[in-house]
Amino acid sequence: MKLNRFAKVALVAVASSSLVIAGTTTSNAATKKLKSIRVAAVVKGLDNPFFIGIKEGIEETALKYGVYANVQAAPGLNDDIGQANKLDSLAGQNYDCYIVIPISSNNLSQAIGKITKKKKTVINIDSPVDAASLKAAGGKITSFAGTDNFEAGKAGGAKMVAAIGAGKKIGLIAGLAGNVTSAARVDGFKAGAVGATFVGPVNADWDTTKALDAANAMITANKDLAGFFAANDQMAQGVGKAIKAAGLKIPVYGVDGIADALNEVKAGSITATISQYPYVMGQMGVEACIIAAQGGKVPAQTITPYYIIDSANITAALTNKSTRGYFPNQTPPGAYTNPYTKLIKKN
Amino acid sequence: MKKISRKSTAPSSEGAVDINFLSRVRSKIQDPFFWSDWLVVVAFVFVIAFFGAIAPAEFLTLWNLNNILVAASIPAIIAVGQTFTVLTAGIDLSVSSTMTFGAVTFGLAFTNGWPLLQCVLFGTIAGTFVGLLNGLIIAKRKINDFIVTLGMLSVASGAALVLSDGKPRQVISESLATLAIGDKANIPYLMMVAFVIVVVAHFVLFHTRFGTHVFAVGGDPESARAMGISVVKIKIAVYVISGALAGFAATLAISRIGSAEPAANTSILLNSVAAVVLGGVSLFGGRGTIFGPFIAALLLQSLSNGLTVIGVAAYYQYLSIGLVVILSAALVRTDK
Amino acid sequence: MTTKPYAIECVNIKKAFGSVDALKGVSMFAKPGEVTAIIGDNGAGKSTLIKCISGVYNSDEGEIKINGEVVEFVNPEESRSFGIETVYQTLSLIEDLSIWQNLFLNREITKGFGPFKILNKSKMKEEATKMLKNLDVYIPSIKSRTRRLSGGQRQAVAICRAAGWGSSVVIMDEPTAALGVRETAKVEDLIKRMKAQGLAILLISHNFDQVLRLSDQIWVMRQGDVMAGLRSKDTSGDELVALITGAKSGKG
């Protein structure tokens, strides 16, 4: 028995060292049977489909491995203190690992600090916990899995330039002024669209109607626009309407991969959506927890997949196990890297 | 009834005391208000006993009880302010964004290098100012409190977003961190602060002329006016109190989350109204206590904590907490 | 007349609401130690007159004298400071406050200084007991909520509150309108005791029997004017009805 466990730890250590991406951290927990692993997760408010996608990713993955998972959410989308209370309540309980998505970059730091003092693992997914406040609270994050909005935007930019050719003019529609996510997506797109010139970005506050109005104005002022990039799908829908009304045939790309956008990609009113996979984030969170509980080395940081869904792969995306509703294609229709799955021992 | 008449034949003077006591108990029990005052205590004991029975090893730990006290501290302070407005038959729907506004002003002061105490004062003054605006508009212009404070909910959070440019400001301070996680004799500092406010508020309400006038204005504004009480002044004052406490609570919120967030946290509002109703304060005004809403704030956090601890799924938690609030409100119904 | 000035005297009081003349130059008086009744049909101006005396309204013209001296007040507070108290039909009691709290409403006794003034509850309870005892009003407990009192008890508490505070004139608007026979009798006894203590009482009542039984002086009002001032012992119910309806002119 004892030898067996030793052998397993050694095996995992060897196996994982070759697979790990960046810096790694080793959990203090000893190897546990899958059945005895208990995971607690505190996500953002469940009034947002993105976080429902994450929740289902966590729950279904836990079910698949046979580990126990308790998913709790902040009482509301902005209830930063309520979310901290939830994590506090769970912190004292008998869990091996905690998956967290902080509402603000700081609000869970103190609660994480308490968990670290109890020598339990914390996995951070989606939105990163601020490093400075985490340090001040004495907290430690074992692994982070989240989207790189800049890279997602960059891939979109490259794709569009490849489609329309270099040296063309592209209109940019951004979300709320000062929003970090929007800025990363737009900046990424600009970096990817090598050789293109840009109009905007204009802030349309993530709103379909505002994006429609903004796109109309941009089309009127720039007859030579060759494409549009919107920082989310709702705005891309608005832009699509504006393009159609102007009688143009130019591409528009959105970001997120919500159900409506996929349908519009199928119908052709949106050219492509750079799809995100909340379900995969939840899955990676649970898998990271399992690795830590088994005493393995957990990759310190993983970028969750994004995938450009256009006419080429829309059918595959739409038929991809549609349990999410708002986010129907729960996993990418093509290959993506998940550094966690391979590190899990089935016991 | 029989018991009392038998007792009354007892010759000893002790018997006489007993009758007095018994009839007092009886008249208390028959008074529907007695139940609205005590229901929250009964419910609180019940909730603790309930979770204590199903999950003693998880729920009844020092760690967890400490968590409940920490979680209840901010709602308790906001509920105290809300109690004052509800006692005058009003309501302050702007508390959550007033707190946000206070937090943002605190954050501005902090990033400009002000000393901590001045930041606290600045945030409190900002909240007081919002409360004063509420009070002036409601009392002087005689506009419905519901509409005014609902509008202010939006105004204050808009102002917070404008002031902060929508960005959170990190507030890392050793003293605030100590306030947030420290305790003495297992009582968290945050709860001590909340309790001091509760005691002071109780004193103001029950041992000053102002307090009596708050009850009078809430119970019957016409009569209060006829007795020469300035209904306008009292109304302004209760909104000022509510705003000031919301502004002050921002300090506690910042200490807990380590930054001044510009987004309004509306569950603070729901929590405060629920605590006030559960705590036996009449929504028609003129009746209530401070300790009732305080215990209700503890009760609500215990409930939320207990459900999380025993692993009730998030969706069912919303459901059960809402049901408890409505059920209790039905039980403490005090229509005239 | 020269020995004792009127407790209150109104001289040519006029009050108009827009184009409606509510009071067209009313002159009347009330003596200390007497019950002075004001009677008249609805809209005769009784309420407007007492509201001018109690400071709720400011009269357009005329003067009010208290103990022979001309006074001016613009609100109920100032009127009260001259010793004029009013018991309205609504009684102005706060249902959810205790009896002693109501007796001391807005006149709370405090101890301490400045912002640290706190209520002196024991003193107020003590004084409240005295106030009630002074007028032989029996209430089971001054600590109980006013909500729990009967109509007559409430009336008694409201009257005691008005009679306390060293007031010289107590105005009562229909003090027994909502009461049964026994409670009415008790309130009437209370009014007699107040009279015996030297207060001037202004009584508005529709009940002629009561007016004749209780009052010493009667002023009959009609359409914003005083039709007649009579000594109660010299008049009858029939005469009062005739004056009120205008069948008989008091001034002629």
TrEMBL record, chain A:
Any GO CC annotation of this UniProt entry = cell envelope
Q: What is its main location?
A: other
Keywords carried by this UniProt record = Signal
Can you say where in the cell this protein is located?
Cell envelope
Q: Which GO terms describe its molecular function?
A: carbohydrate binding
Cross-referenced Gene3D superfamilies, in alphabetical order?
A: 3.40.50.2300
Q: State whether keyword Signal applies.
A: yes
Does Signal appear among the keywords? yes
| Pfam families found in the cross-reference section | Peripla_BP_4
What are the residue boundaries of the Periplasmic binding protein domain, all occurrences included? 40-296
Q: What family is this?
A: Belongs to the bacterial solute-binding protein 2 family.
State what protein this is by name.
Unannotated protein
Organism listed in the record: freshwater metagenome
TrEMBL record, chain B:
Among Pfam families, the record links this protein to: BPD_transp_2
Sorted alphabetically, the keyword list is: Cell inner membrane, Cell membrane, Membrane, Transmembrane, Transmembrane helix, Transport
List the subcellular locations.
Answer: Cell membrane
Q: Where does the signal sequence lie?
A: none
Q: What GO annotations for molecular function exist for this entry?
A: transmembrane transporter activity
Membrane topology per the record? Answer: Multi-pass membrane protein
Q: Where, by residue number, does the polypeptide cross the bilayer?
A: 33-55, 61-81, 93-114, 120-139, 186-206, 236-257, 263-284, 315-332
Q: Which GO terms describe its cellular component?
A: plasma membrane
Q: Does the keyword Secreted apply?
A: no
Q: Which CDD domains does this chain map to? A: TM_PBP1_transp_AraH_like
Classification via PANTHER family: ABC TRANSPORTER PERMEASE PROTEIN YPHD-RELATED (PTHR32196:SF21), ABC TRANSPORTER PERMEASE PROTEIN YPHD-RELATED-RELATED (PTHR32196)
* Record-given protein name: Unannotated protein
